Amino acid sequence: MSASTRHPSGSRFPAISVVAIAIGVMVAGCAAAEMGAPVEIAPLLMVDATTSPATTTASATTAPADQSAERANDSASAAQAGEGMDDKSDKTGTNPLNRVRKFSLVNEFNASGDSSINYTYLRYYHELVEQRIDIRLEVPLVYSHNAVPSGSSSGAVDGGGGGITPADGVSDFGLGDINLKITLTPYLTKTEGFQFSFEVDFPTASSHDLGTGRYLAVPTIMYGWFLPGNMILAPAYEHKVGFAGDSGRDNVNSANLDIYLVKRWNGGDEWVQIDPTYKLNYEKSKYNGGTLRVTYGRVLGDVGKAKLSAYVRPGVGIGVDRPYDWSLETGVSISGF
After folding, report:
1. Helical H runs in the chain?
2. Cα separation of 183 and 32, whole Å?
3. CA angle 196-199-202, nearest 5°?
4. For position 169, what pLDDT does the model report?
5. Residue 10 maps to a domain
6. Which among 70, 76, 288, 332 is placed 20 to 30 Å from 257, CA to CA?
């Protein structure tokens, strides 16, 4: 199907307007959200923060000595962590090791000189095995101005960070390359976890200018630590390899080395995330580029048993081989339904 349309050169209105609308929705939601909204907390990462002192005292007098000691150690860990966040019931999506059913609408605008690409992603995450396995379907709508996508638009932890190849006089809008991803968390404790994922980009773009024209295999490994103060550190390595598709298009053989650090507060309802990424282009022997993105997000409210949250994520390209000069991403998610 061909859904692409041509726009006059220099027109960026569709891309910028989508970003502006997304930011407006987020700001309006933040203003309407109640700062003291209750948050459900149940034990996984730390202890049950809802247990009253009286209940704890009564249990300690009847439990064996080893259980009392274990409870005391858990309480000390929770106090050190700050708020005793429970990542099993976390529905914000800030824990990359947590598998939860989620729907996201994300808009990402990347610019380099007079070239730019705007991605609008529809993402659905479906939990197959609790806390262990999920699948994700991603459908992108793409607007390109004087550019075509370079490699894949996905990032190692949370997506984003797609590169730009300048192409003067090209302005297209339509369907991009659909992505399917499966994620497994074979090891997960109260303090750390290991994750493996495998995804495939399909060359479904409605025109030459909106996709890579290649099938891409994308394996990723990640190890995460749950740190004191409701922080998570999760470095990841992602490798992208083209294995089929249009032989006339550039092959893809690249990688992302991603460092994900998030700090949560207000019962986990607000967070700041720092996400530096070092990009390695093995195909073209370019190793002097990367990105730095910073995120602020918060829970806007409850939707039944689910959580409605939103975030804004500005970013900059770094180095002579940077994928873009600057970027702006906004998103809204419904998680845990």
Report:
1. 13-32, 53-62, 65-81
2. 34
3. 175
4. 77
5. yes
6. 332
